[in-house]
Amino acid sequence: MVYGFIGTGAITAAIVTGLCDGSADAPEILISPRNPHVAADLARRFPSVRVAETNQAVIDGASVVILAVRPQDAAAVFADLTVPADRTIVSLLAGWTIARVRHLVAPATRISRAIPLPAVALREGVTPIYPADDIAEALFDGLGGVVTVADEETFAGFAAATATMAAYFTHLRAISDWLATRGVPSGDARRYVAAVFAGLTGPLRLGRSDFAQLAHEHATPGGLNERFLASLTEAGAFDSVRAGLDGIAAYLASRSR
Ligand SMILES: NC(=O)c1ccc[n+]([C@@H]2O[C@H](COP(=O)([O-])OP(=O)(O)OC[C@H]3O[C@@H](n4cnc5c(N)ncnc54)[C@H](OP(=O)(O)O)[C@@H]3O)[C@@H](O)[C@H]2O)c1
């Protein structure tokens, strides 16, 4: 099995790192030459990675082709490429349905979609996959695991959920900015908030996902966390999260039509 990546950017670097870093039996990987700096760095770090001369050479030399260019570049990139029918395609193109990808890679028909996140570099990213495909699942299984999704609309929900990360950091920023308005030097405020939230990842990294229970454990009855949670709930902060996700899901649906 040779994995070939069309588009060597941030997410390709993360996947290749997860597959190869410290691994005694890293798979053979062909990457496209662009971005040249990212490609050269990956080939330097990992002996099983080779930089192909062209995108076509990646497709010709790989049995599994991973589409990892930016969505807006995909049509132009594939206009000149020929994909043999026997290639397995794993598309990372955000918002591109299977039907749309099929046009891009015809006559190849074995196509699945995946939403890996940068944590795959550390083998800690759970990757949604649609539809079920043992080759796509094997690719991401060792990088933190997979969630195989039954239908494409549900898969789009996972894509929407990934839109919440910048808001998470803005939440932390609001807290540290507020602390700074109380006279704490802003560097100290940021360092403190980073440490508070880094500490909270412990249970998550151990596999706990019982968020209601975790919230309960961090909200002493009558305590400050309980009061703060109640004030955000009453202000509609979590209704806004749900409404924002609905909006993102609707946006994704309109783009895929
Ligand atoms: N980053 C994520 O966390 C993430 C997660 C899930 C899915 N995705 C999806 O994965 C895809 C890549 O995202 P990314 O974050 O890795 O983007 P990125 O860092 O911008 O990487 C895209 C790469 O494609 C290269 N490229 C542009 N034109 C090309 C061409 N004609 N031939 C070959 N390569 C070309 C770019 O090279 P230049 O730098 O020279 O332009 C760049 O290295 C997107 O479709 C995105 O929706 C990303």
Descriptive overview:
Helix content is 54%, strand content 12%. The two termini are 34 Å apart. It has an eight-stranded mixed sheet with strand order 3-2-1-4-5-6-7-8, with helices on both faces. With 257 residues, it is an alpha/beta fold. The protein has two domains: 147 residues, Rossmann fold (3-Layer(aba) Sandwich); 94 residues, ProC C-terminal domain-like fold (Orthogonal Bundle). Strand 4, helix 4 and strand 5 form a beta-alpha-beta unit. The mean pLDDT is 96. The protein is built from twelve helices and eight strands. NADP nicotinamide-adenine-dinucleotide phosphate binds next to helix 1 and helix 4.
CATH superfamily of the largest domain: NAD(P)-binding Rossmann-like Domain
Q: C-alpha Rg, in Å?
A: 21 Å
Poorly predicted ranges (pLDDT <50, ≥5 residues)? Answer: none
Measured distance between first and last alpha carbons: 34 Å
- Measured as a percent range, the helix fraction is 40-55%
| CATH top-level class of the largest domain | Alpha Beta
In CATH, the topology of the largest domain is named: Rossmann fold
Bound compounds: NADP nicotinamide-adenine-dinucleotide phosphate
Strand adjacency order, main sheet: 3-2-1-4-5-6-7-8
Shape designation:
globular
The CATH architecture of the largest domain is 3-Layer(aba) Sandwich
Q: What is the domain tally?
A: 2
What is the string of SSEs from the N terminus onward?
EHEHEHEHEHEEHEHHHHHH
Instruction: Specify the structural class.
Output: alpha/beta
**Largest sheet data:** 8 strands, mixed
Fraction of residues in β-strands: 5-15%
Number of helices: 12
Mean pLDDT: 96
Oligomer: single chain
